[in-house]
Design goal:
The complex is a heterodimer of chains A (99) and B (281). Chain A is an all-beta fold. Chain A has no helices and 8 strands. In chain A, the strands form 2 sheets. In chain A, strands 1, 2, 5 and 8 form a 4-stranded mixed sheet that branches. The chains are: A mainly beta (99), B alpha/beta (281).
Chain lengths: 99, 281
């Protein structure tokens, strides 16, 4: 499959957090969610890895691997980014503030 | 080919929405994106249900493509402007597909849906009604499409360009990081392939990098311009983006897209597979 999965706060059925490293989070501006931002996952060298469009409530989700990642959001309200360290399988929650 | 023949800017598009014999077509990874708002007057193409045969793993045949374009109201004399989400992945795929069936007057909107949205340009939910046409396609131009046997024979002789992310290339991941991990039976890459991720050809806003930047990118990664090139990814859409950069923007003459890509190659029995970053040997 390659149709873009819906970006929801709830994980899709079948996600195995004992095996997968899942990054979930929200794009916000001044504390309020920003919907429809372009959210990019960059690897430890700054190289592009993946991009999703955040849901109307600003949610995004990536399936990553252990390592250091940058989550960068582009929106009409501005851009922003945050770093996330993934040590192993599990759920990693973060937030990107745009301004 | 050159940039002027293959790409249009968002400014140009905005000024030519109602131009004669010009049809805007949206092709997305997220096939529902169009319904939430699209470039005014644009029609939608669903890469999965309309461009793929629904039984065999292949494209719709010539008659099927003719029927599809006729029903969309696209004529042989129309210039088709393609755009879509995810940095034009599927729009580039559709571009290559239109070329495959001989539709020469096709261009890509630079930056696609992302730049259009980030620029705050107008989106519309009205679905245009276009009169049925009688479209005639040509036989597939297989000079731009590679099949598996050719790919296996190309190991060590042609440029193989793997345009997936480094983690997919090395075998660590089997799919892009925004998708659940599934698909091909084995991870890794085709031996002798260069890893030039498609994303290196694009700017953050989804537009293509300049010709000079693109030329330097492929030269630095070791692409030998005197040899034919085959690009591949996982299912052939990201490699359409790189095929576009190499063949349409840089004018490299012998470049094919291997649409079977890793989901086919990584499931074949008996073929060589290499792991790692490909740089140690």
């Amino acid at each position: 499959m390659c149709s873009a999965p819906e970006q929801t706060a709830e994980l899709p059925a079948g996600t195995d957090l004992t095996k997968e490293s899942v990054l979930v989070g929200k794009v916000t501006s001044g504390g309020s969610p920003v919907g429809g931002a372009y959210v990019r996952l960059l690897d430890g060298t700054g190289e592009f890895t993946a991009e999703v469009v955040a849901s109307a409530t600003g949610d995004y989700r990536f399936y990553a691997a252990p390592g250091t990642w940058t989550v960068r959001a582009l929106s009409r309200s501005g851009n922003g980014q945050t770093e996330v360290a993934v040590g192993g399988p599990g759920l990693f929650t973060n937030e990107v503030q745009v301004a | 080919m050159s940039r002027q023949d293959a790409l249009v800017s968002a400014d140009w598009a905005e000024q030519n929405l109602d131009a004669q014999n010009t049809v805007f077509v949206e092709v997305d990874e997220d096939t529902t994106a169009y319904d939430g708002g699209h470039i005014p007057g644009a029609v939608k193409l669903d890469w999965k249900t309309e461009l793929q045969d629904q039984v065999r793993r292949d494209f719709v045949d010539k008659a099927g493509f003719e029927k599809l374009l006729s029903s969309k109201g696209i004529g042989n004399d129309d210039t088709v402007i393609l755009y879509g989400g995810n940095n034009n992945w599927f729009a580039a795929y559709a571009y290559w597909y239109f070329k495959l069936y001989g539709h020469d007057a096709v261009k890509l909107l630079d930056g696609g849906r992302k730049k259009w949205e980030l620029d705050g340009r107008k989106l519309d939910t009205e679905v245009p009604q276009r009169a049925q046409t009688s479209y005639t396609a040509k036989e597939q131009d297989t000079s731009i499409r590679a099949f598996r046997d050719e790919v296996v024979n190309a190991i060590g002789t042609k440029n193989l360009v793997d345009v997936r992310s480094p983690d997919e290339f090395s075998g660590k991941l089997l799919a892009p990081a925004h998708l659940p991990q599934e698909q091909a039976q084995r991870g890794g890459h085709i031996p002798s392939a260069l890893n030039v991720p498609w994303s290196k050809a694009a700017n953050e806003d989804g537009t293509f990098k300049s010709d000079d930047e693109l030329r330097k990118l492929y030269e630095d990664e070791g692409l030998d311009s005197s040899r034919p090139t085959i690009a591949y990814c996982r299912i052939g859409e990201r490699s359409s983006h790189s095929w576009f950069a190499l063949h349409e923007l840089l004018g490299e003459t012998d470049v094919k897209n291997y649409d079977g890509s890793w989901t086919e190659y990584g499931s074949l029995i008996g073929v060589p597979v290499e792991l790692g970053d490909g740089k140690s040997s």
